[in-house]
Design brief:
alpha/beta, globular, TIM Barrel, binds zinc ion, 5-stranded parallel sheet, 307 residues
Length: 307
């Protein structure tokens, strides 16, 4: 090896050592929780599920936001009580429509009416605390299957003063949550344990996938936005997911803090029926094809589909 090649090898090694030791910018994630007052479980269990989920969020000092479907899951009185629990715990609330309509399936006028019908309780409780209703989360992350719907819906939301809450860490948590609830209803504690263990591992695989995807699309990792739901699985096991996030170097931030990352100013050119992570949408804007996400194990999906 000549001196110049030696120098190159040395420089390479030095660069590698630098890259190895260079501190990563701190990872940040906002936890967003859809389908309050409760997803998938009997209304009688709704209070307990929120109580335990809020305990887990409090334990990790997570400033989460809950997205509410006011006319779904529980009676107005129980919904009101649960939303107050969330506000008392210092969490934020946003609108997720009254009935969880799918923008791919109902006309825009009907969808917009359901957005408005999803406001009164949340707006009143926020107002009592001098807060305002600011954020909207699309059910199924469906933002419009054709150009007219997408433009019309975006126009309606911004006219009503809403800021859309995107998701980067999209996932199949709802499949695990459905299987977990079914196992619970059958008093199958071994099944619940198996699903929960698979869930926590799957979520970590999903985080790693989207961290890599972030670097491919943006050249860096933005403040991430995680989507989960208000269900029994997270009441029992989100603590373990939060510990995995902490181990990956994440600190938990509010939605406003996450959305101040300039990545969220990038265009979302996607028009179609899918509910896509915004990382895929930003990738499409840069001409990158949608990458395959990690899938849930087949046995979990089978458990959900079983009678
Ligand atoms: Zn939802």
């Amino acid at each position: 090896m000549g001196p110049s090649r030696l120098a190159i090898a040395f420089c390479g090694a030095a660069l590698l050592a630098f890259a190895w030791h260079a501190p990563n910018p701190p990872r940040r994630v906002c936890v967003t929780i859809d389908d309050l007052p409760v997803q998938n479980a009997p209304a009688a269990d709704a209070r307990g599920i929120s109580r335990r989920l809020l305990d887990a969020l409090g334990k990790h000092r997570i400033p989460a936001i809950g997205f509410v479907t006011e006319q779904r899951g529980a009676s107005p009185a129980v919904t009101r009580e649960i939303l107050n629990m969330w506000l008392d715990a210092g969490m934020e609330l946003g609108n997720h429509t009254a009935s969880h309509f799918d923008a791919n399936r109902v006309p825009l006028e009907r969808f917009a009416a359901d957005v408005a019908a999803g406001e009164p309780i949340t707006r009143e409780l926020l107002g009592a605390r001098r807060k305002s209703l600011r954020y909207f989360r699309h059910p199924f992350l469906h933002t419009g299957a054709d150009a007219a719907t997408k433009e019309g819906l975006a126009g309606y939301l911004s006219q009503q003063g809403y800021e859309v809450a995107p998701v980067t860490f999209d996932n199949q948590e709802w499949v695990f949550a459905g299987a977990y609830e079914r196992a619970f209803q059958k008093a199958d504690t071994a099944g619940m344990r198996r699903v929960a263990a698979a869930y926590v591992n799957y979520m970590e695989e999903n985080f790693a996938f989207f961290e890599k995807r972030s670097r491919e699309v943006l050249g860096r990792e933005p403040a991430q936005t995680l989507l989960i739901h208000c269900n029994r699985l997270n009441a029992d096991h989100f603590d373990a997911v939060a510990r995995r996030l902490e181990r990956r170097g994440y600190s938990f931030v509010s939605l406003a803090a996450a959305l101040s990352d300039e990545a969220y100013r990038l265009p979302d050119p996607y028009i179609g029926p899918k509910g896509l992570s915004w990382l895929h949408r930003w990738g499409l804007a840069k001409g990158l094809p949608i990458a395959m996400e990690p899938a849930e194990p087949e046995w979990v999906a089978r458990l959900l589909a079983a009678d």
